[in-house]
Amino acid sequence: MTLARRLAAALSLLAAAALTACTATASPDTPATPAASVEVPTTPVGERMTWILGVLEADADTTPGEWTRVLHEDFQKQVPAEQVAELINRQIRPAAPFTVTAYSGAETQAVATLAGAVGDPFDLSLSIDSSDRVTGMVFGPVATPWEPSASLEEVEQRLRELPGEVSALVRRGDDDVIAIDPERSAPLASVFKLYVLLAAAEAVASGDLAWDETLVLDDADRSLPSGELQDAPAGTKVSVREAASAMIRISDNTATDLLIERLGRERVEAAVVRSGHADPSALAPFLSTKELFTLGWGDPAVRAEWDAADDAGKRALLDRIDAAPLAVDGANVTTSQWQDGIDWFASAADVAAVHRALQQTQDAEVLGILSENPGQGLDVGSWPYVGFKGGSSRGVLTGSWFVRDDAGEATVVLLMADPDAEAVSAAMPSFFHLAEDALRLTR
Q1: Are 128 and 71 in contact (CB under 8 A)?
Q2: Which of 45, 76, 171, 416 has its CA 20 to 30 A from that of 131?
Q3: Rounded distance, CA 282 to CA 265, Å?
C-alpha cells in the first residue's frame, strides 16, 4: 500500500485517538499547562502545516470545500473531504487553540507536536506533493520522546540503524569523527542547489554577475514547487540576491532555474569541478528542476530520447525542454526516479567539500544566504553560525550543515535513500534528531 493510502486510511482511526487524548484527561474548565512554542519553518510543508493550524483555530467550522482544494485526489479516494471536515470539526477543533511544541521536517514531509487548550498533546504527521497538496495526514499519539545520544559513537550506531542506504560524514575541523560510506554516490534532492550558489558566487567574484542584477520571470521559466516564484506573474523581477536567497531559504525551484539560466549550465558544471566533487560527470549535464520534472514525469518519449542520447544529444534535448513551458502536472509526481538516475548525485564527502568551498568564497552575501534557514526548525545547539541546505523527494532525505565558532568549525552531512518511501518518511524524526545530536556533540 502506498504512503498516501496508508496515511489517509489511518486518518479516521488516529483522529479518534487524538480526540481521546484531547478530551479524556481534562475538561474545558481545566486548561492544560501552557506549553512552549517552536517556530514552524516557511518550507512548503511548513506552510501547509501553518494553513492546517489556521483551520483548526478558526472561529467557524471547516468545510469540505476547503479540503477538496488541498487534498490530493488519491487521498480523497480513501478519505473524502466531507469526512475530513467532520472529523476535524468534531474531534480536533474542540481542543483549540493549539501550540506547536515540537517540529521536524524536510521540504515535503513533517511531524509537529500540538498541545491543545485541554487534554494531552498529539502529533500531526503531514506529507505533500510538488503542488502543495496533502498526500498524507495523520493525527495520532505523540511519538516516544527522543533520548539524546550520549556520544558520537552512539550517533554513528543509530545512523547505521536507519532504513535504506545511509551515507554520513561528521567532520570536526579536518578530522572525520563519523564516516559511513562517505564516498558513495547518493541522490541529493535539493542539496544540489549548493552548487548553483557556488557558481553564482564565482561569477560575482569574476565580475560576470552582480548580486543586484535583475532577473525577469517568463512563463517558460516556471517549475513546480517547492517555492513561491512559480506562482508569480510573468514579468516579475527579482535580483540575483533575492533568487539565491529563495533557492536556499525555501528551496524555490523556479528561482533556482532562473539562476541556472543566467549563469549557463557549463558555468555550474565548472563550479562542480572546482568544488572537489570526486566524479563531476555525475552532475553533467547539470539539470534544472524543470528539466528534471520533465524527464522524470513528463512525456515518456522525451525520456526515451534522453536515455538513448549521447552527451551532445542530451544537451540539445535540454535546450528544447527549456524553450517551452513545463508540461508536467505536479499531481503526477508521485513516484521515485532517482533509482533510474533522474536526480542530482554526490557523496557525503562531496557535499562537505562544496560547503567548504562556499565558506572559502568569504562572500558576505553567500554566508548570509546559507545561514538564513538554520535547518528546518532544528535545535542547532550553541553554534553561533550555521549554514544549512537540505532536501527531500520520494524515498530520499538529505541534510547538510556547516557550523563554526571562534574555536573552530564542523560539518554534518546525512544522506538517506530507500525505494520504500514509507520507511524514509517514518525515519524522518530520527534523522533530524541525530543531526541535532551530531551538532551538539561536535562542539
Answers
A1: no
A2: 416
A3: 14
Whole-number Å distance between alpha carbons of 256 and 198: 12
Nearest to 165 by CA among 378, 429, 423: 423
DSSP lists the bridge partners of residue 122 as: 114
- Residue pair 431/161 in contact by the 8 Å Cβ criterion: no
Can you name the residues that pair with 238 across neighbouring β-strands? 215
pLDDT given for residue 382 in this prediction: 83
Nearest one of 214, 210, 209, 260 to 237, comparing CA atoms: 214
State how far the alpha carbon of 379 is from the alpha carbons of 38, 337, 386, 413, in Å: 10, 32, 11, 16
Q: How far is CA 209 from CA 193, 219, 271, 273, 294, in A?
A: 18, 23, 15, 20, 28
Q: Which helix (H) or strand (E) holds 109?
A: strand 109-116
Virtual torsion, Cα 281, 283, 285, 289, nearest 10 deg? 170
pTM for the whole structure: 0.81
Tell me: cis bond preceding 187? Omega within 30 of 0 counts: no
3-state secondary structure of 45: helix
User: Do residues 27 and 174 both lie within one domain?
Assistant: no
- Which H helix or E strand runs over 124? strand 122-128
Q: What is the CATH number of the domain that holds 55?
A: 3.10.450.280
**Pair (127, 9) in one structural domain:** yes
3-state secondary structure of 104: strand
For 82, the grid coordinates are 466531507
Sign (positive or negative) of CA dihedral 277, 278, 283, 289: negative
- Residue 107 is predicted with a pLDDT of 79
CA neighbor of 256 nearest in space, from 218, 210, 290, 231: 290
Residues contacting residue 415 through CB under 8 Å, at least 6 positions apart: 166, 167, 168, 186, 187, 188, 347, 348, 351, 398
Measuring CA to CA, which residue among 236, 248, 167 is closest to residue 201?
Answer: 248
What is the number of structural domains in the chain?
Answer: 2
* Whether residue 110 is found in the same domain as residue 169: no
Residues 6+ apart with CB under 8 A from 341: none
C-alpha cell at 403: 557550523
Q: Band of the pLDDT at 199, cuts 50, 70, 90?
A: very high
pLDDT in tens, 309-318: 999 999 999 9
Query: Which residues constitute the domain of residue 334?
Result: 152-441
Phi, psi for 411 (deg, rounded to 5): -130, 135
Taking the chain, what is the end-to-end CA distance rounded to the nearest angstrom?
43
Chain centroid to CA 184:
21
CA distance 50 to 57: 11
